[in-house]
Specification:
The chain is 24% helix and 31% strand. It has 161 residues and is an alpha+beta fold. It has 2 domains: 60 residues, no CATH class; 67 residues, Beta-lactamase Inhibitory Protein, Chain:B, domain 1 (2-Layer Sandwich). The strands form 2 sheets. Strands 1-2-3-4 form a 4-stranded antiparallel beta sheet, with helices on one face. Strands 5-6-7-8 form a 4-stranded antiparallel beta sheet. Strand 5 and strand 6 form a beta hairpin. It is globular, with a radius of gyration of 18 Å.
Length: 161
Amino acid sequence: MRRIIALAAVLLGAGCAGSGYDGGNLTPGVSTIAEVEKDMGVPKDRRAGPDGETVLWFPRLPDGRVSYAARIGKDGKLIAVEQRLTRENLELLKPGVSRENDVRDLLGPPQSIQWFERQKINAWSYNAQGIVPRIYVVEVSPDGVVRKAYSYDDPQFVPRR
């Protein structure tokens, strides 16, 4: 029975890899928005970008630990597909300056949002990849301002001593 489950998991993973999971089957400047959605699936979010762009979000959370932003130009053609859950993007968020929209524009929709009553803060969490899988957390106050942005090793993947 375990072998059947393992084989099913491998086949499912192989199917995802070849089906546009990361947009690798798409061609910037050629692929249309309809082709992006056909290849990558239904976007979780759709946001306005700079210069009339539309950004379609395809988070592969929790286990994919990536979130792809497909940037579509005014002409309806793909500009690029970018993996946005990076340490560099997290570091671009500035406490006291950045806002909710900045977080969504840089990292995409969070995996979860948790309200902490005592601190009066929403914690937006993203599972991310790295040498050791990480969890990115962005704390946002009720006025929509980022108060903290940090990451830590996902305890689920840290070896126990």
